[in-house]
Sequence to fold (432 residues):
Amino acid sequence: MWRRAALLSLAATAYVAAAWAVTPGFYDGIAPPQPYRWVSPPPQFKSSNQQPLSGRGSARVASNGSVDPGSIFTQDGQAAVSFVPGAFVTPADRSPVTIDVKPVAEFPDPDGTHLATNVYCVTSSSPMAPGKDVLVTLQFSDQLPAPSDIYEYQGDGPWQKIGSTGSAAPFYIAARATSLGCFAGGYSANAKQSAQGAQLGGGQALPIIVALAILVVVLAGIPLAVMRRRAAAAAREDESEP
Amino acid sequence: MRFALIQAAAPVRVTALAVLVVGLEWSRVLALRAPGLLGLQGLTLLAGGAALCLLAAGRRPEELGLGRSHLGGRLLGGVALAAVLLLPAAARWGGGAGLAPALGVAAVAVSVGEEVAFRGVLFAALEEAYGPAAAVLGSTAAWTLAHVLSHPASFLPAVTAAGLLLGAWRWAARDLVGPIVGHTLADVAL
Fold:
């Protein structure tokens, strides 16, 4: 019993140590990286390139009057926008808010910055609510140096770095944006980039899930252990009775 | 004589099963990359998960660790496994778009299929033939090999360690419900 528990603990420790060495840690590769679809492919990818796809989705207005949360993906999964409840101003007629994510071919010169992904422009039928933000997630090619940050521009530019919160999967980068515009992953033209740049930062949903899981195990485990102990004691008493 | 025959056939039987399990995993990964199937990711994943589950045909649930005794404890074990699997990501989490809903459903099928195939059928076959240590190590080796095509090389140590953890649970608790629940929760959460 104790030997098994010790080996299990050892395996758990070994896993945490091994998973800590890479981000995000647990990654099951449910959807393996597809060849990146470029709007303007680098020369080595020209022959096999497919054009990237756009995405459109809508968020309904809830009964409490705020716009529902959601995520809008491009059809090829290369870009996504995720938003919390009330991220968009509720339309006067309470109609759903439509969000579009489109790859674009023309954009301002990203002076001093090397763009490592397509440029995706995000528009919505209702403006973002003041003080709210959206999470922009972009895939990048596994064949080229990874971007270190997401950059954004509005109107005619200029490009501005909005940073990176990391991502849940390799070859994806994400950042929070307080306004909609056009986004791309990139890095300083002077920087030396490695092939895989996903890093994780801050924290929200996943830590809560893990904390809840630990809480459930502790709270439900105690009565289960007590019940098992009582059952074992009762069985011992039955055996000892003549 | 009969015992000797079974022993002699075991390496072939176990190897064939391991090749079949890894082959199914690789087929799913390669199918997902086929240009003609790009719009059918969810269906491809569902089919891959179902194919892995079919390997359990003919096996009694108890042989695979799927008995109903102590179900509450097993489910709880699964939640605990999920917490451990997700801990490194949760501690450094900065948000992410997660899986699209259709892929989320398909991820459940793949998680269940992988657990039934690796920690269920293959584990049982290895344990019957060579004992528990071989079952844990052999199923982990096959699991790692199965993920070679879908993961960058730098992720493979973590994949191996996850396989060892899930295999160790299967051996220590004689249970597959925990690994299924843990693996599925971890996949869907990420």
